[in-house]
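Task 17 of the worksheet. Students: predict the tertiary structure of the chain below and write it out as structure tokens. Keep your answer in the requested format; marks are given for formatting as well as content.
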Amino acid sequence: MEYAELLGLDIKRHRKNYVVKIRGMEEGPTTPKVGWKRSLSKLVEDRVILDYNAGKEFLETEGDVTIYEVINLWRFVPGIAEISERSRVYCDITVLDHGIISTTGFGELFLTYGHDHTRRFGEIYSVLAGKGNLIMYMPGINVTKVVRMKKGDEYYIPPGWVHRFYCSDEGVVLAGFVPHEAGHKYETVKGRGFPYHLFYDEEKGEVMYMKNPKFERAELEILDGSSGKGWVPKFFGAAMELRRQLEKEE
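Model answer:
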């Protein structure tokens, strides 16, 4: 069984992006709000992108586009809500669109805001559709990791690592698992960004890694994601074991 089916989701591709619906939930004026959206203006306002001027120009030209959406499955899907309450592990879906923050064909790829946690817990990402790039760094350690991920790949982010996700040459749908108590600390990223930012050249079809001058030293390590971890089925069959994994330092 595919992970999307296990989570009760219908995922359909639309051009380079993906549309996600919760099975059995009818859309209409009385449909409950199942999550939240992040638009470009917030990323520009908080200066979490690398080229602030390109972001402003894009806003003026294209408008305040939605970059990504977060769907809180732990709130609205009965079986998932019950497991989440028992294990104290959230299950969220992130739908990150494809695009670049530029009007010239070269610019920063669409990205999530980025965060670390207020308490020392890890987080698990599982790619349900599409392709993207997990980027993470540990403050005080001059290494930034980029994990290139595709459908079926999963990755455990240990406690203390600041992380965000970039799209690739298409959008991406992620399942995320994190303890309720972890909290999201955005101040680490606000006004500073990451040691490296991912840019895309549409003409060449290439991803480029641009160093952020706000970080003095930062080595870059590029990895490929791997499949077979089985974190999504483990949430359903051994949620407390998954939670113990989220408490590990490495």
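Marker's comment: Residues 52-62 form the longest helix (11 residues). Helices lie at 3-6, 40-45, 52-62, 73-76, 78-87, 231-237, 239-246.
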